[in-house]
User: Fold this.
Amino acid sequence: MDKQRFLDILKSRVLIMDGATGTELQKKQYLDNVVIPEELNIKFPERISDIYSSYINAGSNIVLANTFGANSIRLQHHGLLNKAGDIIKSGIDLIRKISKDTIVAGDVSSIGEYIDPLGNLSFDAAYDAFAFQTSLLQKYGADIIIIETMTEIKEMKAAILAAKENFKGAIIVQMTFSKDGTTVTGTDLKSFIAMAESLDVDALGLNCSIGSKDLAELAKVLCDNTNLPVSFKPNAGMPVLINHKTHFPETKEEFIESSLKAYSYGVNMFGGCCGTNPEFIKILSSEIKNKAPNIRSKKNKYFLSTRIKAIDINETKKPVVIGERINPTNRKNLQEELINGNFSLVKDEARSQVSDGANLLDVNMGVPRADEIKLLTNAVNQIQEIVSIPLCIDSSNPKALERAIKDCTGRPIINSVNGEREKLDLILPIAKKYGAALISLTTDDNGIPKTAEERLKIAAKILNFADSYGFERKNIIFDYLVMSVSSSPEQIQETLKAMRESKKIYPQCKLALGVSNISFGLPSRQTINSTFLKMAVEAGLDFAIINPHENWKINDVFAKNLLENRDKGAVKYMEVFASFKKQISGTAAEKLPLDKQLYFAVLNGNKESVPVILDQIINPFKTVNDNVLKALNLVGEKFASKEYFLPQIIMSAQAAQAAFAIVKTTLKKDDKSSIGKVIMATVKGDMHDIGKNIVGAVLESYGFDVIDMGINVDSQSIIDKAREVEPIAIGLSALMTTTMPEMELIVKLRNSVHVPIKIIIGGAAVTEKFAKEIGADAYAKDAMGAATYIKSLQK
Ligand code: THG
Assistant:
């Protein structure tokens, strides 16, 4: 039966399902001489037909085929795997033989073993067992599938995914709850809804376990929290033992009373489970069959969830806090632990962020050269075991994402995709298949756009892709991106502008930001972070990726001025928050010898005085090399000891570059021709260029012809350029641990095309050891190191 037709019927009237099969078979002693009930379909078809007929005669519109445990693992276990096709085919055909009008539901239930970590079964093995069963249900023509009596969310997820991939008709999923509204493995009703809805089932419901009266109240919770059709299939009460026999205490009268209540709540499908019989179904038919469903009010829920808890983002105070601390970037000890397979710091961070109020946890496992697929899935599993808030899986590697998201016991966020076509094509289908919300960065192959307009253009492109993949727009969370205020203060207003505009034109899409990026390289980071967060929330921010341990109550006027770009060079802010004093300045400096003046000009970031000083030196080459590099070294040390921050680094770098540029022109004046070409580039994904620019300037001052390819340069272009200009070396820079792997790619590419050009690498997180491991020819700690190495290459 066409899925849409089934859903259309449900819109116009309620449907009656069948009653118990198992307890009826027992009562009639039909289970004699079979190993499992499903064997009846081929060994004693008349017995199962008898049960089917009794329900069809009682008025059932939907009858469940006797295929409850016909998954491959269970059939194999009972030596019936080779009969699977016959069992499923007969289970369906026998219903059709009795009535052409009855809707035949393929019945799918638990395997009988738990998936890890609760049991030993792997998720993929469970998926395969269900895929086997649901593809046979498709092949032999079931109208719909009912996944029922599920008690474990991961198993339910495997069953739904398998059914979705192998079956074309409607899919209904039912879980079994205790009176308190949780399954035996701790899943509550909302977590069930969150998972089932996100995996795009057509209806959801409840069956078995408790009696109809209590189950009706749970059905009310379902009806209050979902817009999907709901099914209701209670037991005839909680079973009791009387004379060593199971007895179901509920009467038909009690049962119909609860069912009518469930009807009033808006339930769409009614039936019975253990202990019910055709009499129960008959009375259901006479009371509610063919009635129009009781229309429920439309809900606007936005669930994210774990095994035991769901949060409705639409009802959560803004900003929703995503704890950022499970992230090895710039954290050596964490990186080392992870490389050794030790997750104790990760678990500490998980616990402490939850106690400091995180609503979700970001999980980033970007350790250079480590196996991200393994790390991410391990981290997800370990974190889920100790905390119960939803996850935000932070990776751009589709393979790692898919592996980790399979293991999620709830509905997570994927962090992230961006506007690059290849990323969208790989990650959107994963987010759709596994029902995740998806953070979408408004960058593309050209990096982070400068203006709000350009970022919104990328957002529009992302939504076009989402539409074409049938990925609901409301599940897109845009990140319009912030970078450090010390390097790009003018961009903050662009980010906020893009956010406000986005809320206007795409009100259904939510907004996220990696807020802490904004204070990178500055003192008292939490002052800036917290002040900025308020501005971002005013611009409509929904999700804030932040450090929950920081103080988020600060709203500081100096930070605000800095953020609104009224404090150029962060001068005022630094005065207040950093114990930064100019080493020596004013008239005192003018009395020093010229080489010392130059030294302090760089140290103090005084680029205006550089040409004035150098003008007085006849052959500045040696003076510049000695003093500028020495000053830069000290700047680096001061940064490491947190005496200097990013604004000073930038100013000192500019002063140094000015000096080298002047040396270079004096070289030209002396008409020395180029002594060789060097290609310089910051690798793909990385936008940082302070270090690269200094190295380039130094090399130029030595007379090298530097071809600067800029930032975020993709590996192929670098190699193409190298083949074209044949330099003596390629200098690669990467600040972030996440972009260092690009360097290895470039070395490999160089090796594969056999261009005998040396590659030298450097950058904050790069080490000698890393250079050796990836096969780079050299590592340079600083500009001097790079220049010395490249000079040594000259013959
Ligand atoms: N957008 C989205 N996701 C993101 C980001 C974003 N994920 C990663 C990042 N940016 C947000 N998370 C962090 C995590 C840590 C830091 C900043 C942002 C940070 N760490 C310190 C550092 O690098 O110096 C190290 C901390 C330590 O030493 O303990 O600043 O923008 N969607």
Remarks:
- The pocket of (6S)-5,6,7,8-tetrahydrofolate is lined by residues 324, 327, 329-331, 364, 394, 415-416, 439, 479, 512, 514, 516-517, 520, 545 (CB under 6 Å).
